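anyone else get weird line breaks when pasting these?? whatever heres mine. first is seq + tokens for prot A
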Amino acid sequence: MTKTHRICAALALAFGIALSSLPAGATDAPKSDMCLACHGGSFDALRDKTKDWKDEFGDAVQPHQYLDPNAANPHQGEKVVPECTGCHEEHPMPIPSGYKPKEASLSMCYGCHHMEHFQPCSDAGCHEK
């Protein structure tokens, strides 16, 4: 186990989660705060790390957005951190040697951004006024 894995395991235990109690293929997805313990520290820190990320078309996109599921425009409501597993594959703990996760998906984004771009609808012309 690497130093990083030991630190992540300690943080997970601090969240009250015993790694040995997580069965392989557990049906309950981890909460975002557990993921952030190893992947960024905070959602804002993760957003800062991915501010120059490019989508599959080469366009600069911030993939880590606050989303309020109760707001008419989910980007303009409360600052709610979405579940990481909405886009990312949950990995086993401890992470096996040589493990390579699937690439994250923008499928959740494309549920609303159905023309696979991130311009406001008023600018893109995808909805009539």
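and prot B, same format (seq, then tokens)
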Amino acid sequence: MLATLWLASLSLPMLWAQKLINCPYKNVCHYALLSGNDVILQCNHPKALWYFSSSMEDKLSLLNSMSNVKILPRSNLQLTNPQPSQTGLYRCLDDHKTRVVEYEIDFQDIALLHVTHKDLGQTPMGNETMDLGGEVVVFTRWDPWQDCNRCEKPGERKRLGYCYVEEQLGKSMPCWLYMREKVTHKRLRPELQLQACQVPCDTITETNQPYFVFDTHQLDKTNDHVWLSCPLASIYR
């Protein structure tokens, strides 16, 4: 028997589906993010060029060789399905080679995600003192709770936590920006926490949603494997 799958995808790739990262003009900003989820680094300059330096090396090169990178209007930089290997420095320079904005991004490996559910009595990872070329404290820096995924009926919400290192002087930095090398340890990982929720429906929000286009796909064999993806899905929302 053929298995018929109805797959839905939004008709237009809208920018709100991707996490927008910004930084004040001429500043350097540090961010921890998760691999596998699209982001846009904002530069907002008409004739800028992007340069990249991996966290594993100091060589700064023109960003034109990554297949998952695209320059958008206003020189904003789109990274599709970014990988941990793309952790490093992203520098946006104007046509006079002057810095417009600079990002140091730690794309933490989503495959290492430590998941807990608050209502099941599961607890996140605690702080841990480690020797990483000096004594430091490894901790999780949490984002705010996201919106409940359902309304009127019981649902769930989530929050993301990123691996950070705090030095003795109180300065903190995302783990792999601090270490600048591949180090494996059970504490060195990002987190995700779930919690039950129930909220009233927002009528305006519910009726102002994009429309869908449906495609039909058939599997030839009952034991065929299929990977279902939502083109505009993001762990950040």
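btw re prot B: The radius of gyration is 21 Å. The first strand starts at residue 3 and ends at 10.
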